[in-house]
Amino acid sequence: MALRVRTITADEHLAFLATSPASFLQTPAWGEVKREWRAESVGWFDEANADELLGAGLVLYRRLPKMRRSLAYLPEGPAIDWSDPDLGRWLTPLAEHATKQGAFGIRMGPPVVTRRWSTPVIKAALATGDTTRLGDVPPTEEGKTGQEVVEQLRTLGWRAPAERAGGFAAGQPRYVFQLPLKNRDEADILAGMNQLWRRNIKKAAKSGVEVRQGTPEDLPAFHALYVETARRDHFTPRPLAYFQLMLRSLLAEDPDRIHLYLAYHEGDLVAATTWVKVNGHVWYSYGASSTAKRDVRGSNAIQWRMISDALEHGADVYDLRGITDTLDDSDPHVGLIQFKLGTGGEAIEYVGEWDLPISKLLYGAFDLYMRRRGG
């Protein structure tokens, strides 16, 4: 069955995503959020049945400075049959379509798992201190499809992250931490958390921390706390206008696509987060917390509220998003995985982002440009 790729409407795209697992970064609304890119929804069709949509993706085009050619980027996508033993049927027409759109190269992040590590396995590795990288720890489970996808991509001429020789700056995280929710209730999830998490959730409640859903009018308060977090944790914050656009675009697409949460203690905002949902998958996407009053455990309270709401919405997965693969006690990033481990979930490795150079000359020039500007 030969396939072809063509532009589809946002409505066609959303109709497909309603029945297919996909990242929120692959929704039409996300194309509206990333206004510095040109967005296009694309679909895969059987040449013998032009009306049946078999796959879909959001493509973001970023133009090379002073040139008319662009990088085509599909963050955490596309949504196609990654188990197909002949991925060339899907990826070759994508490359042909992107070339016609003026792309000099494609970057994508297949939503395909390669390995999983349970909390007990990671805790054991941290306790012994013999391994400093998660990737060196024997996994709880290996994804057969993930290994096959990697082999096919290499055969088809795609370049893995490690093969970019410094390559573009990191895009979406390769390692994430997820809490499975399917066939579970609050009592079961609490029982799976470590003692510190359970104690902190109880302490927040006893201290009078109140968590509520916010509205777009609460974004300035969220953003002020987010900027405080950025200063404390040494990262560059996004402007308030970005979050206003994000809420407006995602809510217009689906009133349950995104929620804003705020945790207060005696009138003081102590934590704030955003929660995003597509079908059975919920993501914790942005978070902020105050330096003051950390002892009331607002961060644990707000996480527990988001997990509870994910359960109420019938989600199968609560995704705490990115972690690094470090298990080194001397690395400050290890605190991130230690915090998320407390939920009793699992670390997930995806196949990562892959590049296909269409014009090797322009691809190399853009690669150099991105490295010089730091991404």
Notes on the protein architecture:
It holds the Pfam family FemAB. Keywords: Acyltransferase, Cell shape, Cell wall biogenesis/degradation, Peptidoglycan synthesis, Transferase. It comes from Tenggerimyces flavus. This protein folds into two domains: 1-109 and 353-375, Gcn5-related N-acetyltransferase (GNAT) (Aminopeptidase, 3-Layer(aba) Sandwich), CATH 3.40.630.30; 182-315, Gcn5-related N-acetyltransferase (GNAT) (Aminopeptidase). 36% of the residues lie in helices and 27% in strands. The chain has twelve helices and 15 strands. The strands form two sheets. The protein has a nine-stranded mixed β-sheet with strand order 7-6-14-8-13-12-11-10-9, sandwiched between helices. α10 links the parallel β12 (281-289) and β13 (317-322). α7 packs across α10 (298-312).
